[in-house]
Amino acid sequence: MNGNTVSMTVSDVINAHFAALTRAERQLAETLLDNYPVSGLGSITTVAENAGVSTPTVARMVQKLGFRGFPDFQARLHQELEATISNPIAKHDRWAASAPGTHTLNRFADAVMGNMRQTLSQIEPAEFDTAAALVADLKRKVYLVGGRITRSLADYLFTHLQVIRTGVTQIAANPSSWPHYVLDMRQGDVLILFDIRRYEQEMETLARFARDRGVEIVLFTDQWGSPVAKSSSKVFRARIEVPSAWDSSVMLLFLVEALIEAVQSSNWDQTRDRMKTLEGLFDSTRIFRKPV
């Protein structure tokens, strides 16, 4: 596989080649993506039977995707699966084993710049604009939720959206209370959801409930893709790996801040009025220091 393909996930490679596949290969591709990556981890015979295609079809398609053969294809899937379930200790050990002798700042800068290039290369501006239009639509209520680590991103986005528009709700951290929020969701509302590895099971349940009520789900996830993607209208995958035991939120925050700008610009007159009102409220309090 070439360098660009190696930096992509197997699902990225399948999607990139989908238009060039035969009818039987497309049937196989759809089966693999439907329960990705688990659907590709059986024997070549099992994979073929589950997709309703022949074993030679599986062999031809993986070679068409750029793999040397089915074992090479499956090895990549195993690597991805291992990456998505890695705990902080395992991630640290993997990075430490091959870390160059440069300063931490330089290693981080190189990784983040690489993440920036790869993330932006896989995001369609039109898809981003469509998601921003959904969030900006005042006829729709907007709900936000994040996981153990990504909750801070949901909170950051909520704080800004609450200034920009009405009808914004941040879902509480306790999953036992989530059905109460679902009660108020209506068809056409928007759920912005953050979920990165190791993908929290409650997120998938919440997304399924919301989808069944006709809610548009905008998912921010990592390069491998949360299982919530199956229920989502829009999916934005950010590169998160850096030389650390922890995943990086830099690219996710970049996308969040770009979304804030897009939404506020689309409703600027109302946003400006709300900002003026809020600044007046701040001026009547002692929250911020005032010039002498």
Describe the structure.
The protein has a five-stranded parallel sheet, with helices on both faces. It is of the alpha/beta class and 292 residues long. The protein has two domains: 10-85, Winged helix-like DNA-binding domain superfamily/Winged helix DNA-binding domain (Arc Repressor Mutant, subunit A), CATH 1.10.10; 121-284, Rossmann fold (3-Layer(aba) Sandwich). The chain has helices at 3-6, 10-17, 23-34, 44-51, 55-64, 70-84, 88-98, 104-121, 125-136, 151-164, 178-184, 201-212, 250-266, 268-283, and strands at residues 142-145, 168-170, 190-194, 216-222, 234-238. The longest helix is centred in the middle third of the chain and has 18 residues, at 104-121. 56% of the residues lie in helices and 8% in strands. The protein is built from 14 helices and five strands. Helix 3 (23-34) crosses helix 4, helix 4 crosses helix 5 (55-64) and helix 10 packs parallel to helix 13 (250-266).
Give the strand tally. 5
Distance between the termini: 64 Å
The CATH architecture assignment of the largest domain turns out to be 3-Layer(aba) Sandwich
Following the backbone from N to C, one meets helices and strands in this order, namely: HHHHHHHHHEHEHEHEEHH
CATH topology of the largest domain: Rossmann fold
CATH C-level class of the largest domain is: Alpha Beta
Helix-strand makeup class? alpha/beta
| Uncertain stretches | none
The radius of gyration is 22 Å
Content of β-strand: 5-15%
Tell me the overall shape.
globular
Number of domains: 2
Helix % is: 55-70%
What would a concise description of this structure say?
With 292 residues, this protein is an alpha/beta fold. It folds into two domains: 10-85, Winged helix-like DNA-binding domain superfamily/Winged helix DNA-binding domain (Arc Repressor Mutant, subunit A), CATH 1.10.10; 121-284, Glucose-6-phosphate isomerase like protein, domain 1 (Rossmann fold, 3-Layer(aba) Sandwich), CATH 3.40.50.10490.
